[in-house]
Fold this protein.
Amino acid sequence: MGKVFTVAVKEFLATVATKGFIFGMLFPPFIMTMMIVLMPLLMNKKAPTVYGHIAIIDQSGLVAPRIKDAFSAEKIKARKEKKIRQTMEEGTKAIGMDEKSAAKIKEQADASPMAAASSLIPETSLSVVVLPPDTPVDEARKEILKATGREQAGDGGSARLALLVIPENTLRTKELNSEGKPDFKPYQLLTAPRLDVEVQGDIRNETARAIVDSRLADAGEDPVKIRGLTEWPKADEKAVTKEGDRSSNEVAKLMIPGAFMFLLWISTFSAGQYLLTSTIEEKSSRVMEVVLSAVSPMQLMLGKILGKGAVGLLILGLYSSVGVTAMIFFAYAHLLAWQNLVYLFVFFFIAYMIIACLMASIGSAVNDINEAQSLMGPVMMILIIPMMLWMPILRNPNSMFAQVCSFVPMINPFVMVLRISGSEPIPAWQIPVSILVGLATVAFLCYAAAKIFRIGVLMYGKPPNLATLIKWVRMA
């Protein structure tokens, strides 16, 4: 056992003591930190101003005045301020920010709303030109082709950025559709190819609002009153916890289970990849022959698996600690069941041993990394299944498909980590049964890997295929 421990320590230090590993461990958190710091600075940069005009062919004569009023300088400014406030309210609610912090951010936004709004929405200097109702559409749309998207203030706002064509039957019609509702016809919105998507959306929204208001007014109704009555009510959602009511966070409820599975996948595959490359390098450079003069193939394989497993455990421990600390700092701890962290490390052992046995077998059987690709294909196709189906499993963790996958060898650790960290409880008996299935899989793969490693580690020449590896396992 002492030799196994010596090999494991050597493998661990050979990986973690390199600049590449340290850089790889620190680079993702560094990038995330830089994004958090730089994003507000980049977002505060003023967006370019959009100059030009909107042309309207209004055959009803009722919509154009409302659109013209909607694109006055005062109304544009008011919409920007309202949008930035709504965005900040939705953002603070989505991340579960406490009410005191959210109120402080709102005060800062109210102090300089235009500065915040300008960073998210481009400045617009739009005017509205109402064309005669009988204007040919083909003639009016030709002016749009002259827009370059680079118009400046000196151009006088003459570029035609959009053309609205509103037929009479968009407001008034006697025809009914299959549901018995008035069968209004659509209007046309023709825009310049380079028109900013935010500006285009603003034109579309305000035109739709103006058309609906015109319909209501034409029917003798008060548009303001009707809109107030039909506005969707807001819900004050709270999650009831032992520490008190907390803001509900739907995004975190979806992302936390996915984060658990991705953490498991990254840590196990990173360690497995290190094991694969180190085995191939030692074999191709004939270092393996020197090492085998001091230890047995079984001791060498076990030492390499344990050493790289410690690397994976370090990755998992570091990133999970950072994640848990962040959740505590942002008051998300109530969304995390602490026993799930225990299960995470239990299933890490199972998942890593499965991947390590496969990687050790492949690495000992080939001579270089290119030869390993053909054998890695079937393995990756199986192990990537949970990554492809994590959303259906998360949305319905007790479905027949999810339950079956929980007992399928090789993929069950990833599926179970995803299921147990979800919001819906799963039958308690499935967790120990899944662990037993995983341990049985590990025992079989260790047996098979030991046979392949013993034969393949000193075999050179043409690399074996999958059928040959199976023959090696069946050999006495």
Notes: The longest strand covers residues 50-58. The chain is about 65% helix and 10% strand.
